[in-house]
Amino acid sequence: MSENGVTARRSKVLTIDTMNATVKKVEYAVRGPIVQRAVQIEKELKEGAKKPFTEVIKANIGDAHAMGQQPITFFRQVLALCSYPELLKDGNFPEDAKHRARRILQGCGGESIGAYSGSQGIECIRQDVARYIERRDGGVPCDPDNVFLSTGASDGIVTMLKLLVAGEGRSRTGIMISIPQYPLYSAALAELGAVQVNYYLDEEKCWGLDISELQRSLEAARQHCNPRALCIINPGNPTGQVQSRQCIEDVIRFAAKEDLFLMADEVYQDNVYADGCQFHSFKKVLFEMGPEYSNTVELASFHSTSKCYMGECGFRGGYMEVINLDPEVKEQLSKLVSVRLCPPVPGQALMGLVVNPPQPGEPSYTTFMKERTGVLSTLAEKAKLTEQILNTVPGIACNPVQGAMYSFPRITLPERAVKEAKEKGQAPDMLYCMKLLEETGICLVPGSGFGQRDGTYHFRMTILPPVDKLQILLSKLKEFHQRFTQQYS
Amino acid sequence: MSENGVTARRSKVLTIDTMNATVKKVEYAVRGPIVQRAVQIEKELKEGAKKPFTEVIKANIGDAHAMGQQPITFFRQVLALCSYPELLKDGNFPEDAKHRARRILQGCGGESIGAYSGSQGIECIRQDVARYIERRDGGVPCDPDNVFLSTGASDGIVTMLKLLVAGEGRSRTGIMISIPQYPLYSAALAELGAVQVNYYLDEEKCWGLDISELQRSLEAARQHCNPRALCIINPGNPTGQVQSRQCIEDVIRFAAKEDLFLMADEVYQDNVYADGCQFHSFKKVLFEMGPEYSNTVELASFHSTSKCYMGECGFRGGYMEVINLDPEVKEQLSKLVSVRLCPPVPGQALMGLVVNPPQPGEPSYTTFMKERTGVLSTLAEKAKLTEQILNTVPGIACNPVQGAMYSFPRITLPERAVKEAKEKGQAPDMLYCMKLLEETGICLVPGSGFGQRDGTYHFRMTILPPVDKLQILLSKLKEFHQRFTQQYS
User: Where in the numbering of this chain does the Aminotransferase class I/classII large domain appear (chains A, B) (predicted)?
Assistant: First the structure.
């Protein structure tokens, strides 16, 4: 407070020392320093800087369209029709696209996607989501009132975590997350001031989830906090594993026994590539386990328009389904989401199309299926290619990319490199990735951004670049790894 | 923790008693119980229920398209082109729309609005925002690096508040907000656990802002918290006043003297109707006051695609500009927004069009200007109509609707009505609005949802219904008020 009025050297109200301390703790590696440097290098290249490469390849983030994947024609046709309904008179648009567009517009206030929707999302889209879930889960019923559309899956996940966090000191809420994890979780927990409870995936067993490790982690956590929820990402991010039905059943049994709220991040549900692997939703398995479980275990599951075969990240579409949520808590959830008015309506429309795509016999069906299958089979090919090539490099060990969009190989780093990084106050795999970026233009995320067992090092690499570019990327990476190892030996 | 394994009657992990207590404190009247009842009544009407009315008129929320306002053709053409670029070959689209669409697509990864953008927003759109601000503010420079695109203005406001909240007990951050206020502010402050510091607008002086009231409020707050920021909504929501240049200068001087961070919610900047009133941005006035102020006072200002002449709420587009923000805090801000990846890209595109509309000489200019002027002049007409008719009702006193989209008239309620409400544990104006809804189908928001001086009662009503419907609404409201007064006298 100044007593002599204003002076030109008045200090700031808001400084790094006086700002929200929990925000300072937030970290988000997928868009961290390495990506900032990549953006900078791109600008330098544009301005004519000479580098040992001509372009930056961003394999740091699951951003399919940015890597050249084409949108699904039907989805974009319907979105164009919804945006500019004058096009409903245009003979070049197929009838099924027009029909979907009319249905969405009828669900909107004033038949405009420019109107706010209900905070929980447009009703007819929530109904379509419910029917999609029922089909996916072999007929297990889904009530549209349990479906909340969201601004990407991230929004739903953060909202559920927000409801769960309570207590102080030893009774502060703990949230169990896998390590390696997707850093949205650690960032949200830091911001909410919840206790992050780590359980480790087993790299030796293809990043499998082991119940005894869950038990160990839980018991350790109970010494200092109140663990209340267990988060699972399946198929895995960053680790690319696909959980077996048995494993999911074991996890549900564990959650029931230990009174844990389950959060199932299932945004990669269509991204399953490996032979013998199959996606099982937590909800389906829960209901197959009978009423003892399906009537009691609290579950929130999350989906998104950003991944799978559509890769429509920019629209920020998503939904969550809540099972066995206490009705009073559900009311609080409805109230909470109403403050932000509604998820973006174009994203809602897109989510509605994903859960209600063209059907056999409709004019757009053949093209839709061709495009969908094309994307998924190319991803499967790239998953295999990535694993195979990486495993030819001495000092790199890559588990099969069973699903999702990432490989998370382990890298052996020479002791001298580890030492140099530590002297610089840098994570050793950050040193590695930063050098890789500067020398080759390849942008990956160091394993330390996701968490890993002490003394192990990894990176996350998406499998999204087009096949020819991916091959170049992998061979450059191979050369780099050999050079790096030699240099520091 | 259960020791005997699962039982069918296992209690919930997450209950109203064990959930996040701060979330329970959140209230959001604009979508509160009255709106839930309105939605229910709409369903009852659809199912054939007999009511004294045939439709619910929602004058509770600034949702222009839901009230029949038509979108701006040019904006929707560009959005359709961006959604389905195949249309760029279509001869029916004007060249300027195609040009804008190409520019936006070139700013997107893979030239697709389905790619993530940078977390701060698409660069060329931030540049367009900066140029718009410069034009609006008579040449005051704007750095695109200070512009953050957001998911509606709400997102930007909550993000800035999040950075500001710190301290415990007596040093907990206090945030000054006007009463009446827009309940996003109280909801966000409750959720963040900040101290809400009320200053009252002067209803007798057309909801004017008085510096001595700011001073009173600040000094009272300093007894129990650390007031750090002052929020202003101009033009006002829910009160519809437009601040004079002098008033803004006084506020800035006050903020500078008292070391307060300024937050200027300017989402209604094009919604100014009253003769002699004009919109002045806080930034412009700040810079006109000279370097003593423009180099020191920290300011965040907010804009949106949801209001003004476009009313595109569903797209959740918006931006904030930060002035004099500490560079380290700005880095933290960039990091914080990166966790949610990016604002919805269609909303970003729309924001880009709002700040860069068709120019004289371009093919879409005439139609654009006609549509824009049409919407704004109709709104001006409805603002006047609302004020005039309401003021003919004994027991209703309505200040001029100088700007924004709302009237916030004061209503005199008979003592017996106040008593009955209190017996029911209800706010008296909630009783009034609920009865109005049940008897006439008109949905308004009680003044108690925005805050008001003790013992006074108000409602907020949008001026958005079409003129003929607005007239019916106002005459029904008049009848109702007379009936209500009689009934309780």
Answer: 91-474
